[in-house]
Design a protein that fits this description.
Elements: E1 3-4, H1 11-20, H2 26-32, E2 36-38, E3 44-46, H3 48-58, H4 92-97, E4 106-111, E5 114-119, H5 124-144
Antiparallel strand pairs: 1-2, 2-3, 4-5
Helix pairs in contact: 1-3
Length: 145
């Protein structure tokens, strides 16, 4: 197996040593700062990845974001496209943001270059339909002019 020969430098000590060894090649700099291992065959292997990671950390550049993501999904783009079968799918991100539940129903109203989805409910249904009808009549008047 491999074992580390010396404790690698970190922080300000690493920055000072790198500045001091600025004339040397990068592999030699990493080796001088302790970022190497010796194999069972007595071969020296320089670990440049750990060296660069330590160098970035010493300079205050974060390597990983503060709030780790769960690794699932993508960021919402607020755009959808029509699939090949003619369907438009609205993702779970949007339905959760709107507080929708499984089984919620909508009325689909087609307008000029837009689609309105009106959530069906006892009290909201009539008011929403009246608002949409008045909006469409205003748009029709604008189109005629």
């Amino acid at each position: 197996m491999t074992e580390t020969a010396t404790a690698p430098l970190t922080g300000k000590a690493l920055l000072a040593k790198v500045k001091e060894l600025s004339t040397l090649p990068r592999r030699e700099r990493a080796k001088q700062c302790g970022y190497y291992t010796v194999t069972k065959n007595n071969q020296v292997r320089v670990n440049l990845t750990d060296f660069y990671d330590a160098l970035l950390s010493a300079r205050g550049i974060p390597l990983s974001p503060e709030a780790p993501k769960d690794g699932r999904g993508r960021e919402p783009t607020y755009r959808v496209s029509v699939h090949q079968n003619g369907q438009i799918v609205i993702g779970a991100t949007y339905t959760k943001a709107m507080g929708l539940k499984s089984g919620d129903e909508f009325e689909i109203r087609l307008g000029y270059k837009h689609i309105h989805l009106i959530q069906l409910g006892d009290t909201d249904k009539k008011a929403a339909l009246e608002d949409i009808d008045s909006d469409e009549s205003e748009e029709d008047l604008e189109d005629e002019e």
